[in-house]
UniProtKB/TrEMBL annotation:
Belongs to the aldo/keto reductase family. PROSITE patterns: ALDOKETO_REDUCTASE_2, ALDOKETO_REDUCTASE_3. The record marks K83 as: Lowers pKa of active site Tyr. This is Aldo-keto reductase-like protein. PANTHER family: ALDO/KETO REDUCTASE. Residues 17-295 form the NADP-dependent oxidoreductase domain. GO terms for molecular function: oxidoreductase activity. Signal peptide: none annotated.
Length: 315
């Protein structure tokens, strides 16, 4: 099993990466340094997934600066993803958002730059603009204009590859029909309870590589409840893990990798960071893959119901 997937623009993306959502500034700095040190020692993590909304790009940049300065990893061996936020959907603000991320991340180019969502917010300096009643203030900027801004970033050499996140097939096709530079990546929630086989098949037919977030069910996300289904408690997943002498997390990650889906997983725990990467020394057989496929129940951990009245709500 290759540790990279091919992109239609001729570049590569690692099949497994490190997510930074929900990491505080200090946690992000500590964890990212650990990841890159481990990456050199074990030829493992070399992809880090960031976002403006995670509020830790500066910490990630500090860690980047440290490991690059010490020669732990070369810039060309490091793959960095970040995302254009909802308040930056007009063409000009996309370019400004990209430049700000570059400054915070302390790098000269972004490897993979994604539109975080097709939904736009009012353009301002606040992360989530709200009215006097606490309601989010949206914009109706067409994400095709946002994509033009993404192409500007690409043409300016600020980013190497551009893509989408949280878009549905119809929205992706609309971008494909209008674009001058094709999206090469789609980052979406994907796990055994939400396999999204049709969307995956669609992307594959268009040469778009899928990147999974929430592959472990994001059990510590702020809006989680005790009543929701847990992937870590699933008997099928645990039986398969026991059979291979692996953890449930390792099986969940391996499942995506064998579907030719790249994965980003977050942890601030050193032992889990190492354990999560240890998925290249075993293989799920066809029966086990089918058993996990059958767990699909179209269940989203990331439904974002507060956005459901926006005209570009993707779910």
């Amino acid at each position: 099993m290759s540790k990279f997937l091919n992109l239609i623009d001729g570049r590569l993306i690692p099949t497994f990466g490190f997510g930074t959502w929900q990491l505080s500034d200090q946690d992000a700095y500590t964890a990212v340094k650990l990841v890159f040190i481990y990456a050199i020692e074990e030829a493992g993590y070399i992809h880090i997934d960031c976002g403006v909304a995670y509020l830790n790009e500066e910490a990630v940049g500090k860690a980047n600066n440290d490991v690059l300065a010490k020669g732990i990893i070369k810039r060309e061996e490091l793959f960095v993803t970040t995302k254009c936020w909802h308040t930056c959907h007009t063409r000009e603000r996309v370019l400004n958002c990209c430049k700000q991320s570059l400054q915070k991340l302390k790098i000269e180019y972004i490897d993979y730059y994604l539109i975080h969502s097709p939904i736009g917010f009012k353009e301002c300096d606040e992360l989530i603009p709200k009215d006097a009643d606490g309601n989010i203030i949206y914009s109706d900027v067409d994400y095709l204009e946002t994509w033009q801004g993404m192409e500007d970033c690409f043409n300016a050499g600020l980013v190497k590859s551009i893509g989408l996140s949280n878009f549905n097939a119809e929205q992706i096709q609309r971008v494909l029909n209008a674009c001058k530079v094709k999206p090469v990546l789609l980052q979406i929630e994907s796990h055994p309870y939400l396999n999204q086989p049709d969307l995956h098949k669609f992307c594959k037919s268009k040469g778009i590589v899928v990147v999974a977030f929430g592959a472990l069910g994001s059990p510590v996300r702020p809006w989680g409840t005790d009543n929701e289904p847990s992937l870590f408690s699933d008997s099928t997943v645990n039986d398969i893990a026991s059979r291979h002498k692996k953890t449930a997390a390792q099986v969940l990650i391996r499942y995506q990798v064998q579907r030719e889906i790249a994965v980003v997983v977050k942890s601030a725990n050193p032992s889990r960071i190492k354990s999560n990467y240890d998925i290249f020394d075993f293989e799920l057989n066809s029966d086990e893959m089918k058993m996990i496929d059958c767990l699909d129940r179209n269940y989203r951990y990331f439904l974002f119901p507060q956005h459901q009245h926006h005209k570009y709500y993707p779910f």
